[in-house]
Amino acid sequence: MALQMKQEGGFDYLETGGPGEPLVLLHGLFGGLSNFGAQIDFFQEKYNVVIPTLPIFTLPLRMVSLAGLVDHLAAFIKYKKFPPVHIMGNSLGGHVAILYALDHPEQIATITLSGSSGLFESAMGNTLPPRKNYEFIKQKTESTFYDPAVSTKELVDEVFSTVNDRLRGLRIIMTAKSAVRHNLAHKLDQIKAPTLLIWGNQDTITPPFVGEQFKELIADSELYFIDKCAHAPMMERPEEFNAIMSDWLERVAARTEAV
């Protein structure tokens, strides 16, 4: 992934500049642009893959909330003058994607959710973890994956650094509490865009029943489970994730053309 971060218009993002429609990828609460390296490599020849940084740590403190992140995403897509986008979100990024789709349905071509919050999630909790407790952070970070080896020391160190920065830790808690308040159960029937759900069978943060609930509440949706996989399928099982998503996008495109 040799792309350079772009900084313009008050936004930080990666963009492949590919020939096709925009494919916008949204990271989770502890995620980042590096979470999507396999998706960039796979999709960049067919789509313009775009990964904006969600400004959890840079928004003015009074704006730190899910609504603040959605407003930032809306301003970014408007700034880029994108046509309707294919949007994919993992964890908190999925939650942001849904809220954006509800507010701007005309800007959505398709939605892909993976381990999305919005109905139920069990993560760090509502208070800061014990400061300087590296082992606690290591165990929590490893719980994101079925195979703990995927949780590298670099990843654990990054999360540990974040939660031990008091202001950053406060922003994490504020954002997490905002996500819990924004339960989407009563709104998902408003989603009309084709929606793909990809869940890890061993996800303990947003367990499989959460994916099943999304499937029940979003009319035009398909749900796929990946085995030996937890909360971040695009990182842990990238080949299976990309194959499912690519096939589905092609089928939706064919269906749209037929109509």
TrEMBL record:
Classification via SUPFAM superfamilies: alpha/beta-Hydrolases (SSF53474)
Entry coiled-coil feature ranges: none
GO cellular component, one term: membrane
Source species, domain of life: Bacteria
One Pfam family, short name: Abhydrolase_6
UniProt keyword Hydrolase, yes or no: yes
GO biological process, one term: acylglycerol catabolic process
An example molecular function term from Gene Ontology annotations: monoacylglycerol lipase activity
AB hydrolase-1 domain ranges (all copies): 23-243
Record key words, sorted: Hydrolase
PANTHER family assigned to the protein according to its UniProt record, in alphabetical order: HYDROLASE, PUTATIVE (AFU_ORTHOLOGUE AFUA_2G14860)-RELATED (PTHR43798:SF33), MONOACYLGLYCEROL LIPASE (PTHR43798)
Protein known as: Alpha/beta hydrolase
Native source organism of the sequence: Neolewinella lacunae
